Structure formats: C-alpha cells, structure tokens
Amino acid sequence: MATVKLALVQFESALMDVAANVRKGLKFVEQASREGADLIVFPELFVTGYDTDVIGGRYHELAEDTGGLTVGAFREAARTHNINIVIPMALKRSEGGIANGAVIIRRNGELAGTYSKVHLWEDERKVFKPGDVCAPYELDFGKLGVLICYDAGFPEAARTLALQGAKLIVTPSAFSLEDKHRWDIYYPARALENTCFVAGINGVSREGGLRLFGNNKLANPRGELILSGILNEEGMQVLEIDLDEADECSKLTPYLRDLRMDTYGYQA
C-alpha cells in the first residue's frame, strides 16, 4: 500500500492581512502534523485573500518571492512538523510581474518547486501573468500534481499531469457560490478520466461581494467523491488515501494507456 494522509484546509483569509493569515496557517500546519498528515494544502491566494475587485493592484505590493518571510515561515514549519506543504500565494516572478502561484515545500523544508496558474480567470488577467508549465513535483510519497482553480476546467491540464505519473492532483481554489455547479463536476470528472485522486481546496469568505463557500472535494480514481466538506465554514479535513488504487483503476479502465496521443498531440 502507498498510503498518504491529506489535510485539506477550508481557510477564511483576512483580506490583505498577510501576517494574520500566516499565523493562522501555521496553526493549521501544526494541527495537521498532530493528526499524522503527510501533506497539507491551502486554498488559492490564501496568504493575501482572494478578491480581485477589492485587492486589485495591491497584489503587486503583497506578492513575495520564495526567499520572503512567508515561504521562510512555512519552510521552517515543514521541518519542525515533518509535513509537506502547498502554499498558494501571489508570487513574484524572476522574469518580472507576479503569478497567481503556489509554492510546494517538502517535509524537510526544501523547495520542491513553484507553480503559476496557467488559465487565469476574468480580472486576474489584469494583475497576474499566466504560467505555461504543468509538471508534477517529486515528494516523498510520489509525484504530486498542482493546478489552481480555473485550471481544473481544462481537461488537458489534469491529463498532462496524469501522463507524467501524478496519482494525486490538488487544486487550490477560490470558487464563488454562483459557480458551485462547476465545482461539483470538476473533481469527479478529472479523477475518473485520469484514474487518479483529485482534490479541490476552496476558501471561505464573508468579506466584500465575493462569497467563497468551502466545501472541499476529493474524488477517487473511479470518479467517486470520498469527501465533500461542510459549506460556508472554515475547517480542515484529514483523510488517508491509497495511491495504489490509481494503478488498479488504470488497469480496469485504461484511459491513459489507450489515449491516442498521435491524434490529440499530447507531448507529455
């Protein structure tokens, strides 16, 4: 068995209060470690909060690079609590501009890499630069795929990660209530068609006009929901999965084996 215990956080961010969000995030890391989690994942842009209407250009002021205080604090927490961490945040790009990004930290505090959201949603385009790479990150339990929110609506993104060997894909998100019908569909669909585990991690928001509703999701490689978190409340779900289930399902329903890459042009 290749078991992994996940901690998925429905985080309620204080808009633009980075210090407060980091302090609370570190408490969740400590709690997840006490419960034996191997990996903790937070929602999209949880370090600053998500609201392009309210925050707008201030994301540029609040963005940090991987050498900043926020990443430093979570790297130390990863070492102290022996846990892998995915931190979604406004991330300064070495080539200029900022990304709606995520930093992936190994349990020894090393950086496994960074991800920049590829498919930007609406007004995000006015603030962030899109990424152009979908590739998994090597952690101690195997290859982890990371997407962000709207990325999950593009089957090609998850398929590209699955073709590179990711058996678990996590998707930090900021889904609003009016789009919940898509939230309910994305994760079972991406899991089924790629015979892997797919998680959606959503924020909770009561500030401004944007209503993020939590309701974290996790679907297994058969496309069955094994987690549907509580609505409109901050909290964390901790549960264990067996990554070998992905291999078993792939033998029964070999979508990845039978994919006509010559027809569709996949280059993974």
From TrEMBL:
Keywords: Hydrolase. InterPro entries: Aliph_Amidase/BUP, C-N_Hydrolase. Residues 4-243 form the CN hydrolase domain. The keyword Hydrolase applies. PROSITE patterns: CN_HYDROLASE. GO terms for molecular function: hydrolase activity. This is Carbon-nitrogen hydrolase.
